[in-house]
Amino acid sequence: MRTNYYKVAEQVFAFRTQDDDKQNYIPSCEPFVYTPAEGEAILFTLTVDDSFSPAQKGELIGEFPCGGADFNVYRLADGSYQFLIAPPGGDFCGLLQANAQFSEATLALHGNQWARAFAANNSIMLLYAFAAADKNTLLFHASVIENDGYGYLFLGKSGTGKSTHSSLWLKHIAGSELMNDDNPVVVATEQGAIIYGSPWSGKTPCYRNISAPVGAFVRIRQEKVNHITRDKTLEALSALLPSVSSMKWDDRVYNGIYDSISLLIAHVPCYTLGCRPDQEAAEVCYQAVKVNK
Prior knowledge:
- There is one protein chain.
- The protein has helices at about 115-130, 160-170, 235-240, 250-265, 280-290, and strands at about 1-10, 10-15, 45-50, 60-65, 70-75, 80-85, 95-100, 105-110, 135-140, 145, 150-155, 175-180, 185-190, 190-195, 210-220, 225-230, 270-275.
- Strands 9, 10, 11, 12, 13, 14, 15, 16 and 17 form a 9-stranded mixed sheet that branches. An 8-stranded mixed sheet has the order 1-2-3-8-7-6-5-4, with helices on one face.
- The protein has 2 domains: about 1-50 and about 90-130, no CATH class; about 140-290, Rossmann fold.
- By secondary structure, the chain is α+β, with helices and mostly antiparallel strands.
- The radius of gyration is 19 Å and the shape is globular.
């Protein structure tokens, strides 16, 4: 087997393929290539093995979309998981089985080169999200701008204008750079939070191995008048919790996410921005959330 290591937001993972398998399944991970020190902790190891066939089929938990893929989720009696992976409306292209902690997993791939890479990339993203869930490390569905040394996360349901608002900052707010446009990683601490780029960025190829302190979380809502308010605790919780990849039926995963979000709310300001897609919206947001050093 050939093993490559990657480091995303201080978490190291391993990706193993057959020696004769020459396909580059995860090119977006190349900025995160890493050589671990002897004895360094590994978050998870994913092994690609097309001959893999599970000894038994788990109980169907349900179906859910994540990162642009559709997953059928099954749980076995020992707490381990099976996932059938497909692109939206497409054919099944991957069978993933992971242990209960998501620290060890095997992936059987199917289909053409694109389909195999699709399943591999989404498997890694899923394993990362759930293996790190109880380590104060969260995979957010957000677009992120870095400005003056701080990262600002724009949250909201698909289609609400997160990427559009980021583009307005890039155009109208001097010194702004795009950190990630769909799936950044946030690490919660007692002092605040750190935002990291990741190998997953939706339709925008922005795979940057960079980090910054989080300046604010901003929930985006489409409205006719540009205005912004700071959220109270419950409002912040209702904005952050749906923005994180989760599994409510898994206590370890869900409790870890909830505890991390509680830590974030205690130390990082959260806002709700009602806005139009225009220059004024970016300026109103920036003036309210910017960190004054």
